[in-house]
Amino acid sequence: MRLQFEQNLGNLKDRLLVMAGMAEHAIQRAVEAYQARDLSICDLVDYGEQAIDHMEREIDEMAIDLLATQQPLAYDLRFTLAVIKINGNLERVGNAAGSISDHVRSLQTLPQVDLPVDISQLASLAQGTMRDALRAFIETDGDRAQSLLSGGDRMDQVHKTTYLLLSSLIERQPELIPQALNTMMIARALWRVAGHAKSIAEDVIFWVRGADVRSHMQHAGDGWTN
Amino acid sequence: MRLQFEQNLGNLKDRLLVMAGMAEHAIQRAVEAYQARDLSICDLVDYGEQAIDHMEREIDEMAIDLLATQQPLAYDLRFTLAVIKINGNLERVGNAAGSISDHVRSLQTLPQVDLPVDISQLASLAQGTMRDALRAFIETDGDRAQSLLSGGDRMDQVHKTTYLLLSSLIERQPELIPQALNTMMIARALWRVAGHAKSIAEDVIFWVRGADVRSHMQHAGDGWTN
To answer: Fewer beta carbons below 10 Å: N end or C end of chain B?
Structure first.
């Protein structure tokens, strides 16, 4: 019975890691779609978003079955609930990828221009935060999750700089407004991905320590939130 | 024992409704702060956001205690998990209020101008969607939740119109860019509130029907997502 239970917990964790891989891949593809202005990659992102939605449901049902049939306690109960929460955050990462894909489609209808922003840098910060959060989950590492939350926020800075750059660009070149605004929204989606990764880190801490440190996407009082 | 259990479920539901009231109030206040350009209301929103974060934790812990000590099954198990999910969505509504408050602060540093957008309308659509979702929860009404999800999306239209209006405004009057962009972000936060309300409707359906219809903030392929 205990062996079966351990196996079920292990299966749940494995399945969540598949979901995490799908979400990471979605962001990767969405950024590629932006860089190559390639609508066929947008199609892949949209298709992947549906697959992520299905996987989210499957994982939720696995977790509920486990709660119903095995009635885990303490650490295992918190683990199962953390999986449900992380699962929801990963689905939101999938949504962010879908949003990027939508804005790439809009950009594709406009004259292509080189804007003075580094989407690759934002993407790499977002992906790095995701990787850190997932590693904390895989390694049951509350300290790693905590340091992800308490570290200075490079992502906030780069996102803010991107916003200001685009904002001053459209002041000088109003003909680039549509391109600049779509790019601003892509930057924002990547910034949100980092926020979801932080929520995942909070879920890991909730599980590992039984202490809830949540302060989702806490705002710093300067308008750079949500 | 069963009586105690029913009482615990009732307490959990009551507490979630307190949380919902706090989230609704936060949006109400944030919109008032915008309309009156009143930073003292922003302070209230920020203070309220902390209270919402605390309440989120309290409800999660109540739900976990209930799962651990009473091990609910079937309908009651799904209810308890729906509470955890709805709780997370309400906390995100609180974040959206905080985001509006941040942008009001930014607006306050700029010359005040009348922009041709109707934030009240967006607010009233967002609040209406919230109310519908919460009523579906209170009345255990899967049909109401479903019709909220399948109805034509007026919010999407008004949000898109607001974006286009502001976008063409800054083309004509680039000196208004900072005001227009902050207002755009306030509109977006309200649009997100409606999205969180839809997620709540999905959580209600998950609970009532045991069927998961999730498609959080599904994107329509035109860039108006996330």
So the answer is: N
